[in-house]
Amino acid sequence: MVAASNPTCLAWSARCFTARAHDLPKDDCQFRCLDYPDGLLLSTREDEAFLVLNGIQTQSARTLNLLAELDDLVQLGVDVLRINPQSRHTEAIIETFHDALRDPAMAVRAAAKLDGYMPVGPCNGYWHGDAGMLVQPP
Questions:
Q1: What are the CB-based long-range contacts (under 8 Å, 24+) for 87-96?
Q2: How does pLDDT run across 96-131, given as a tens digit for each residue?
Q3: Eight-class DSSP state of 58
Q4: Contact indicator for 82, 9 with CB cutoff of 8 Å
Q5: How far apart, in whole angstroms, are the C-alpha atoms of residue 94 and residue 67?
Q6: What is the bridge-based pairing of β-strands 2-12 and 57-65?
Q7: Phi and psi angles of residue 26, each rounded to the nearest 5 degrees, phi first
Q8: CA nearest to 89, candidates 8, 4, 5
Q9: Where exactly are the structural domains of the chain?
Q10: Contacting residues for 33 by C-beta, under 8 A, at least 6 apart
Q11: Whole-model pTM?
Q12: Which terminal residue of the chain has fewer beta carbons within 10 Å of its beta carbon, N or C?
């Protein structure tokens, strides 16, 4: 079983949404995705971060972070944690996960430390049976 620390992929498309946002065809996109190393952020009319367009993926704007749920993950038999690289802070994120895995009692504090490394912020609602964009305490 795998647990994640990454934006949740909500949809895949044959069409590159980053190219489309710039009115470019997929086969002549001019690599506009390079302008958005963590994806192109979309907000609601209320100016709330909602989605990230990352090439052919539509992702959640918030980063799914289950590190605070480490005890539950271990009890469920999770033996792999997935960390998606970001344009910044990936090494610090890996170190934080590593520290929490060495000392599971530190997992909740380590999860809070990760909040500052996330482009928009954390979420864990799906884990708790709520809307995915919500943050529930461990």
A1: 87/37, 87/38, 88/117, 89/117, 92/117, 93/5, 93/117, 96/67
A2: 989 988 888 888 888 888 888 888 888 888 889 998
A3: E
A4: no
A5: 11
A6: antiparallel
A7: -60, -40
A8: 5
A9: 1-138
A10: 16, 18, 19, 54, 55
A11: 0.78
A12: N
